[in-house]
Amino acid sequence: MKNVIKTMLCLGAALLLSGCERPPIATVQTGYRGTGMEQVYNPRTLAQQAPLNEAPVAPEAASADGPKAKDVYKNVQVLGDLSVGQFARHMTSIAQWVAPDVGCSYCHNPQNFADDSKYTKVVARRMIQMTQHVNQDWKAHVSETGVTCYTCHRGNHIPKNVWTAPKDRKYASSLLGDLAGQNLASKEAGLTSLPFDPFSSYLLDNKAIRVNGQEAMAGVGAYANRASLKQTEHTYSLMVHMSESLGVNCTYCHNTRNFASWEESRPQRVTAWHGIRMARDLNNEYMTPLTSQFPTERLGPHGDVAKVNCSTCHQGAFKPLYGAAMAKDFPELLTLAKP
């Protein structure tokens, strides 16, 4: 009987341990020695991520000679200064980036390419301008690497990682009562019970991110209730999202001895600061104004359009596509064309 019990205990322990992480785990020092600022990586996870972050090979450049696209085709509102060859190259690339299974007809009426009846064409036109805006005006975040449609879409009609205002979850049950916008494990907050909408306040609205209050029980003035414990949890929720999106831990940007100190932070924190503002800019200037163009089934539970956050581009990598510089192969996306 004792042997049976021992066998059962051993089997139980083996099953329990089979779900645990197995070595090796890689660490990379990122800060000063002795500060504990290092990144922890799972080589097996990195191996799985690698093929998902491979940039497609750019097609051979087309000649700039010949007539302009705007002079040959009707209703060309963006990229019209490209030659016909360059324009065809770019349209073919967009089809591969966004709708490889459908092709041109995802955005165009194949009987009349000038027709704007498909909402996807109207949206795509604006997304080209948004891409140009990012590459031209947000170098503080994207540097010279830049972005293309593929950075977000990766061959999908809709980027895998977008967000809308979550559905109302006021009462999960009579026992839990008011969830207060949190207390429910959510993917957005890294499966924690932190606030499950870390985006509306910071990536749509311009709420100040505050953790360290300057006075006790702050409740008046411009930052009323923005340094409370609840608002601290909102900040942590956004930080968890950023960490998950980039596949890094807190020390990628912060010295955990003093999270608030800019002097002790890594340069990546400045890049992230600009990234938050870039996402807010894109959501307000490009995504939200397109709301009326989308069919109802493409809108969120509150009727808002899908918007961008950190994971839209990064998708688990500290740099989108691990820093592959695709934009240089499409110079027409590097600057916002004049109307």
Features:
two-stranded antiparallel sheet; mainly alpha; 11 helices; Photosynthetic Reaction Center, subunit C, domain 2; 339 residues
CATH superfamily of the largest domain: Photosynthetic Reaction Center, subunit C, domain 2
> How does the overall form come out from the CA principal axes?
globular
How many H/I helices?
11
- In CATH, the topology of the largest domain is named Photosynthetic Reaction Center, subunit C, domain 2
CATH class call of the largest domain: Mainly Alpha
What does this structure look like?
The mean pLDDT is 87. Helix content is 35%, strand content 2%. With 339 residues, the protein is mainly alpha-helical. It folds into 2 domains: 38-160 and 316-339, Photosynthetic Reaction Center, subunit C, domain 2 (Orthogonal Bundle); 173-314, Photosynthetic Reaction Center, subunit C, domain 2, CATH 1.10.468.10.
What is the topological layout?
Elements: H1 2-18, E1 26-29, E2 38-41, H2 43-49, H3 69-72, H4 84-98, H5 119-137, H6 139-142, H7 149-153, H8 200-204, H9 229-246, H10 268-287, H11 310-314
Antiparallel strand pairs: 1-2
Short description:
The protein has 339 residues and is mainly α. Helix content is 35%, strand content 2%.
